[in-house]
Amino acid sequence: MAYISIWGNLPHRKTDSDEFWVPGFPKNYRFHKSQMHRYAREADGTDSWSKFFIPQIALSMKSDGWICNTVEEIEAFGLQLLKNYIQLPVWCVGPLLPSTEKGSNSKHRAGKESGIALEECIKWLDLKEENSVLYISFGSQNTISASQMMALAEGLEESEKLFIWIIRPPFGFDINSEFKAEWLPEGFEERMKHSERGLLVHKWGPQLEILSHKSTGAFLSHCGWNSVLESLSHGVPIIGWPLAAEQGYNAKMLVEEMGVSVELTRTVESVIYKEDVKRVIEIVMDEEGKGKEMKEKANEIAEHMREATLEKGEKKKGLH
Description:
By secondary structure, this protein is of the alpha/beta class.
């Protein structure tokens, strides 16, 4: 929804502040320039992105109604803003989640070859305590910079938390190419494997199976909407690291409205340190304090999502 107003009004260009207000939102609701995709930050109405998106948005406003992959109970505020803005019917049909039925594994859902056998991954998780593992993935189209990758690895090692990391080459390299050891601290992967503290999965991993496992306690994510739905449907709180598209707005909602997330950083341009990584991991995976609160809220949302798939106590046809 923020995109609609940003492309039409470009409010971030009307202030010298890094924060700005989007028409249609409450006056006390602020967005930060770093939450915008860099193309949106640079948009002036004549650039290629503006020329593409503005007509698309205009055409979508001529629709008879909008269908959204969400659940009304978890996005009441955003849905009301959308309805107010477009003045059209809005139907929630979510959560549209991949099937977890037998025979439908992550390879078939994603169309990608996993870097680890599902059985091996589950066996590793089965040996860990409940809610003790941090799952890390930046989705199918995103990756972080080399310096960020190094800091993330250092912070993970210092945190001494268990983790599964779906890892691919850093930003600026072919995301599907072979991974080089030089992108991580010397000996990092070998130490993690030997100590059984960390499992590095190259290329792709069985995300839904990992998130649904009782040992998974948190998800370090780019906050793409599919990943958000998959995580929250299993009551798994999120460490946000938005990288592109609408991910910055998703992360904002997860932190400020839902209370199920803490943001580590934003974009591939940011500078992070191992101390930042360790601090945020400890907050989210703490069994008391804020970590406990986020887990409880994530479980409440999971229940709303489960109820949305039921009709008269039975699972609705077509929803998994």
